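Weekly structure sync, notes
Attendees: PL (lead), two postdocs, one rotation student
Agenda item 3: pending single-chain targets
PL asked that the sequence for the first pending target be pasted directly into the notes so everyone works from the same version. It is reproduced below exactly as submitted, 452 residues in total.
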Amino acid sequence: MLHLVHSIIQSPVGYKWFIWNRVIEENTVRNYVVKGNICYSKSSNELCIVENGYVVCEENKCAGVFHELPEAYEDFPLYDYSDHMIIPGLVDLHVHAPQYPFRGMAMDLELIDWLNTYTFVEEAKYANLDYAEKAYDIFVDDLKHSATTRAVVFGTIHNDATLLLMEKLEKAGIASYVGKVNMDRNSPEYLCEESAEQSAKATEQWLIASERFENVKPILTPRFTPSCTDELLERLSQLQKKYKVPVQSHLSENLGEIEWVKELCPGTKNYGDSYDRYDLFGNDCPTIMAHCVYSDEAEVEMMRKQNVFVAHCPESNANLSSGVAPVKNYLKKNMKVGLGSDIAAGSTLSIFKAMAMAVQCSKLRWRLYDQYVEPLTVEEVFYMATKGGGEFFGKVGSFEEGYEFDAVVLEDVSLRHPQELTVKERLERMIYLADDKNILAKFVNGNKILEK
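Predicted structure, written out during the meeting:
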């Protein structure tokens, strides 16, 4: 199957990270061709399919997709995955790495009670680096073997554990943003930073320490408005302007949460305004807000104008009885929208599962609640999982010329069927049925990080 002139050297078990990185850097094949059934998005309603075609990686970027390989690329090494599916790498815009140990459990409460009863108890364990080592080994290994090539990740309040997570993601070759969480109020004593000043000081130390990573970048992470004082948000705003880093948080996930923000932030127009008054809501501050289930018209318009990314997390919103975001409306308004697994309120890292649930939940919302908001289509959720979320990383998530080369090779022969299927039908079936057993190979920014 694989015809490759040069091979990427794998590091022996036990080598230090800097040696591993040096070997990869010196031996990565930057120019090559991948052959197969190529599927990618140009827009939320334009899905491109080239059967048994060629996608070219040149200097780690896409040089184009072709039915016949141009003569200029005939001498490039060839990865031949004829009749397999080749898709852009999937993007997870919202995942809580420290919650991974209790995925699939503790779904009996709504958001605030769930946080207090389960989540904070688990996250406190990451003060212990031995625990963090074991937990993050599992998380990163499973993420590497998934179809996700890019992720935006919450850590915990602990600097050392968060840097450890970043180091593991760097070594695994997964391009990501990772955040040291900030919380200085309305949190249990064992997981509440002592002051806004201390939280900001620790955050700056972490930002400086993060400069050593190449493919894993820091992102400021105020957990959500109820857990951050005004002073802390102001200090984070100052850090954002000084270091030019992006921001991630939560927005309008739960009705009780929204009422709580109104009490804590008198004078704000809406939940989004509680971030915006500190310049932590788009514009010159690249921002991801997870959920946006109950955003009112003013909040939605502010997100649209200020290019705030919405991380839609359908499984999480179902498991915690939060509701279903009107994502179709966001797409119609040309807003920035991607998908999140939201572990552990979501049960799986699979962005395929997030795509399927996004469609299913949108159908229930349309049928039971609001028939003015149409259900999502396969084209739309595939776009959200690739190019839509990938835009937060730049030119990522498509095989259009000039995009960073992220790709996943899918094997669907094991899913038996008696009838002939088109490539689009096979892609739709992958969205509903694929798991890590169907992933043959994975490329991130031109580097091949997984081969089965």
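Discussion points:
- The two ends are 12 Å apart (CA to CA).
- The first strand starts at residue 2 and ends at 3.
Action: rotation student to compare against the earlier draft before next sync.
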